[in-house]
Each structure stands twice: as structure tokens, then as C-alpha cells.
User: Fold this.
Amino acid sequence: MGFSKFGLSHSVLEGVKAMGYVEPTPIQLRSIPLLMSGTDMIGSAQTGTGKTAAFALPILSQLGAHDRTGPRFLVMEPTRELAAQVETAIRDFARFTNLKVAVVYGGVGYGKQTDALKIGADIIVATPGRLLDHIQQGTCKLDKIKFLVLDEADRMLDMGFLPDVRRIVERCPRERLTSLFSATIPPEIESLIKWTMRSPETVEIGLRRSPAETVKHVIYPVSEDQKSDLLRALLDHVNYDSVIVFCRTKNRADRIGHMLKKNNHAVAILHSNRTQREREQALKGFRDGKYEVLVATDIAARGLDVANVSHVINFDVPQHPEDYVHRIGRTGRAENSGDAFTLMVAEDATHVHAIERFIGKKIEHVKLETFEYKYTALFEDAKPGAVPMHEKRVRGVRLSGGYYFGPSKRKKR
Ligand code: AMP
Assistant:
């Protein structure tokens, strides 16, 4: 049966076939019928579950063919990278239609975007600030929008975009189909939902907080001054295809990126101080396999679809538990398995506990056997209660020096 049961248009079905999708993912199974029947929906699903197709396929099917009425389908995204990614996915799904797509985001010139809008785009994928600029300049009108998608709404909130989003929604006709996707629903998003949607249905796939189940994640305790050495040792020992290394700050990302380059790794660096061109080149090179390591700040953590990331290494423990889920969501996407390693220093204990509470489970503590550890208080704390761990391998890494620092066995203070 696959995708044929949903009543999608013939050309969209051809697009899906060309993408090689055979069976719908759970969020697609639930969302496509709702959107085909014209019901507003709130989608909450783990990252990498196929949510782009979940909203794009039914909406593209209802758009039909290109016409000159003006944009009828608007997708709002929090970052340029996400906007570019969703635009590419929509172009792929719509490749057997004659629908026209424009992507609109800041950090680049206006010319190409204005041209795409002038030609008469049916679909706009946009970040809020630049879209408002185009509206003010009269190069874009939203009075014919019939389908509105607010993607990564919690991220929009984090980035302070909600007032802009509201201004944009005010420009759209009230008579429309609205869907909103968000990993969490804080009160601000709740009120956005009340304001923008009519009797929405909620589609929640799996636990909102849990990371993809195909990811094996472990913690490597280490002292601060050995972090870089341990990272290098891990990269030497792990059989990875591609790895994203997350750092807390832009400076640290630059420093670690340059250090790994010196060690002959093919490295790209992604953070918000880099120019739009540099960011695009970094992502493209990483996707194409030119770079094996992407060193990034959290800007890259949410929603970005980089296929086949085999490993995520948190060089720094994320300060917000939800960022942990987003970061390790880069691996294990769409049922591929992946591994996530987090380097932890003594001061990170509170953040690690917060993450464990958030995801509802303890993360295993392991040591890299071949690495020469200096003393760290974390080991001291764990050793008396440690039990031997059976030889275990995660893609070629020997995980343990013989000790399992499982929380239940830990020495009570
Ligand atoms: P998304 O959550 O939309 O970013 O999608 C995550 C990844 O899953 C993308 O690489 C999609 O191309 C892929 N994907 C989405 N739906 C399916 C499907 N039904 N079958 C196989 N792959 C899919």
C-alpha cells in the first residue's frame, strides 16, 4: 500500500517514489490523512522522523499546479540552514509538478530572492526577518496563503522570533490550513497555537523528550585539560563515516576545528559568526563527504538533516537538556543507527543529571581503554562502586577499561 492509500496527487506520488520512500514513517501515517482532510495539526515528533514529508506531501497534493494567484503555501523556519533544507526537500517532492518555490532568508543579497518571488512563486520557505523585509518592500504578499506551516516553533521562540511570526501570520488570510511543529510546547507556543489554529489535532510520535532509539549514547568522564586529547583519541579509534563535534561557544568550535585540521582531519566549522557562504560550503562539503568532521555550535543541532552521521561527539555537555536531544538527534536519523559520545568534566555533573532527568534514563559512563587518563575526581568518585564491564564495542571502540560507572553502583556521598 505504501503512500498510495492517502489520496495524494499523482505527481506528488511520483516524487515520493523517486525519493525512494516505500513505507510512510509513523508521523507521516498520522499527519497526511489529517492535512488531506483540512484539519489543523500540531506535530510533535523526534527529529529525523520524516516530518517534512508529513506536511509537504499532503499540501503539495492540494496545491495542484502552478498558477498566477501568488504564494499559496508558506513554511516558516527558524534558521537559514533549515529553510534551505526544507526548500530542497519540497523541490524534490514537487519535481513532477510545475509548482514554483522561492526560499527567503537573511545573510545573502535580495536580488535572487526578489526574482524568485516576482516570477510568481506558489510556495515560500522563509525565515521571519527577511520575509518581513520583503513584505515591507512590497516584493511579497501573503493575502493568498491557504497553507501555513510553522516549523520548529520552540526554536523560533528561543531565538526571539515569535513577535515577527505573529506579524507574518496577521498578513495571511484567516481561512487557511495551519500546522505547527515543535519538540516542546511551552506556554508561549500554547498561546500561539490558540491564536493561529482552529481546533487542531495533536500528533505525537513517541515520547517528546526521548532521543531516537537507534542511538547508543555514552559519557566519557575526563579532566578539562585532557578533553582535546581525548577527542583526538576517540577520532583515532572510532570507525566513523561522518561525525559532528558540538562545542559550547563559537570560539571553542574554531579552536577545536583548527586543532583537528592540524591533525589531518578533513574538518568544516559551522557557527553563526561565519558568513552565509562559509556556512553553506561547510554543510555542503560535509553532506558530500568532502569533510569527515563537522565542528559546530548548537545552531547546527536542530532539525538539520545531514544523512548518515555515524557519530555525534559532545565536546561540551549542553547546558539545556533539550539541546542534548537535538544534538544527538543528528545521528540515528530515519532508522539508521548512530552513536553519541559526551565528554564530561567534574563541573558538568549538574547538567548531566538534568539531561538524565529530561530523557528519563541514566547514561552509561565509559572509558577509552587505550587512553592515558590523568587523575580526575570523577573516576575517584566512581571507582569504589565500579563493577567490571564485559568487553563491549561500539563501532570498533573498546568502551571500557574494565569499569562500568553505572549510577546505581556509584558511591554515595
Ligand atoms: P525529516 O524529519 O523530514 O528531516 O526527515 C529525515 C530523513 O528521513 C530525511 O533524510 C528524509 O528524506 C528521510 N525520510 C522521510 N520520510 C521517509 C520515508 N517514508 N522513508 C524513508 N526515508 C524517509
